[in-house]
Amino acid sequence: MWTKAWPCLPRGWDRLPGRRAVSLTVRKHETLPVRTDQDVARVRRVVREWAKEFGFSLILQTKLVTAASEIARNTARYGREGKALLEAVDNAVRFGLRLIFTDTGPGLKDVQLAMQKGYSTNKGLGLGLPGSKRLVDEFWIESQAGQGTRVCMIMWK
Amino acid sequence: MERIPILKWGNFLLVIIQVDLHDRLALALRDDLAEQIQKTGARGVLIDISALQMIDSFMGRTLGDMAATAGLLDAETVLVGMQPEVAITIVELGLAIKGIRTALDVDKGMALLAKRLGSSSREKGRVPDRTEA
Lengths: 157, 133
What we know:
- The complex is a heterodimer of chains A (157) and B (133).
- Chain A is α+β, with helices and mostly antiparallel strands and 157 residues long.
- Helix content of chain A is 34%, strand content 27%.
- In chain A, strand 2 and strand 3 (95-103) form a beta hairpin.
- Chain B has a 5-stranded mixed β-sheet with strand order 1-2-3-4-5, sandwiched between helices.
- Chain B starts with 5 loop residues before the first strand and ends in a 7-residue tail after the last helix.
């Protein structure tokens, strides 16, 4: 499964000696389609349910749901065949929720640029990507023009 | 199609958001609100978001747009009842909801609107209304 080859690695992972990957155990998972407005609303609802179920604080719940909403909207708006994979994971030390958004849309020409505050191609505020990154513990985006986009985020409990 | 009701209360319009505000619903509310302000001549709009569990950048922008549109139609907007975790999250997200007043609850929001409208109508008594010229 690609998630094993491409886990959501901690910030600065590329500077770690030997680029050690972190192994995660998936306790529960669910895949949701992300194509329409209603799908985005459902992602919000389900992420909220999961965060509640696993005992995240109200603030962490709200941050995770907000970040999920931002990314899900991008997936629905720009992507094709958008999907959200929700996973309850643990790395033997901590428990977390991992959300992976994938699509086969046009992708981003320049990921670095898209991560800058204020960058938008669609009259938006350009807050979605950099803002979401600030809201969660780990955030990883991978995209290539013409090949779609994958966004992975983890909120640790 | 699903719609958020807009209630008329004296000079004010009252909007209580009690459902998850998905994008199309938010845009419909923005348009309905402008229409209702024009139709009723309301001078103030009070939007109760106490049941809203999150505000992301799109919703924030739409709320800002509502206030800006209402402003152009000579109505003041007050956002009331924002949950503390929502406030914390939108600040961290980097979202600035500009040109919109906030109050802790409906009572305080109403008081704020009444005060603002009271003082602006006094000003209007003294200074001729330029927009009517």
